[in-house]
Amino acid sequence: xxxxxxxxxxxxxxxxxxxxxxxxxxxxxxxxxxxxxxxxxxxxxxxxxxxxxxxxxxxxxxxxxxxxxxxxxxxxxxxxxxxxxxxxxxxxxxxxxxxxxxxxxxxxxxxxxxxxxxxxxxxxxxxxxxxxxxxx
Length: 136
Fold this sequence. Notes:
Layout: H1 9-14, H2 17-42, E1 51-60, E2 65-73, E3 79-89, E4 96-105, E5 109-117, E6 125-134
Antiparallel strand pairs: 1-2, 2-5, 3-4, 3-6
């Protein structure tokens, strides 16, 4: 009696075509995923966080104005405990400052934050800036 492998020719012939195609597609998907993750790990950037701000909206409230801003990190490293500041300039009153904090902002990600002001931001100029962060 001869030994047959796991996939004898009879078993291979009995396997439906669609099942073989699904198996091949799954194998290729795993191979491409491994190649992509290896490439991404080797090409990782050590650039510091590059924080950018985009004004989304200003919503009036009963006693204040809520300024919603999308904060993005286009740098290569994560920013933890990111301190943010918004300043309203150019009104009749002295500049008004508001601050916010993000616990975690990964590379190539965006989070929405809110700043509260007593003065209508439409009457002045909003200036945003990051104050500091720590590495996780």
